[in-house]
Give the backbone structure.
Amino acid sequence: MSRRRASIGVIGGGSWGTTLANLLAEKGSNEATLWVYEEALARDMAETRENKTYLPGIKLDAGLGITSSLKEAVESKEFIVMAVPSHVLRAVANRLIPFLSPASIVVTVSKGIENETLLTMTEVLGELLPKGQHSRLAVLSGPSFAREVSQKVPTAVTAAAASEDVAKQVQGLFATPYFRVYRSSDIKGVELGGALKNVIAIAAGICDGLSFGTNTRAALITRGLAEISRLGLKLGAKPLTFAGLAGMGDLVLTCTGDLSRNRTVGLKLGQGMKLKEILDGMKMVAEGVKTTRSAYFLARKCQVEMPITEQVYKVLYEDKDPLGAVKELMSRDLKEEWEVSFFQ
């Protein structure tokens, strides 16, 4: 797929930011620069052409620029890709705004909901960026483990933007023979699907840690999708989004894949470990831990029933026994599977 040469700044040197920056650089038609927060890591990556901390074993393209200077990564770039953890996106965005061109398209690939404000990542950026740039915001999400994408495993994701032109530009920017990009106008649905599936993945891991079977996992994924959709529809998302790549696709991947950090957190909780011990032993961020708090309070604010999310919140933040949480879910009042109001 040919397109004109584009200048891109990718902000965040974790596994996903590194993978996407490398993908963009490898296309050859792009000038891609990756911003890495840790100066020592940036220097080592530039010298060795490998991110030994977050993406070991993957050789980085010789044309990929690597820097710890936000100005260098952002100034005069046509596209800015925000790949930092969701809980630091606001702080990093505030730092880069002085260098941001008004014409830049800003794409967030961070999956989360801000704890303090209960805003999605594009909503956070919408608070910070000039109003004229709001139509140039986009989100990229879907079932995509960084390591598999870095190994060129066939993958499909969704790019969403309010403007179809912006969505098409982002679609063309990222598309490769192994990375297929669909487009959507439902920013809200794509973001909520990407964020909330991490909460359900923790629940799936808990069930696996308790040695429940595939029956349990199938039920959990299905009912998890139901409550993600309930909240999404309440907030104005489109129903079909949750049946797509950013909804069901990402949910299935994160609840079943061994590379899922959120499932791993749940797995260890189900095996009896405490949350602090688990997080202390992880190099990379499991977004679902913080998102669970946001999702729990957002559901309460919107008066939307999310029983799985509620139990995950109690396990994470109230030290509830995981087996007790499952028993409580299974003993809830019996009801219709689908309520008419769900679709209205």
About this structure: Strands lie at 6-11, 30-35, 65-67, 79-82, 105-108, 137-141, 155-161, 179-184. The radius of gyration is 20 Å.
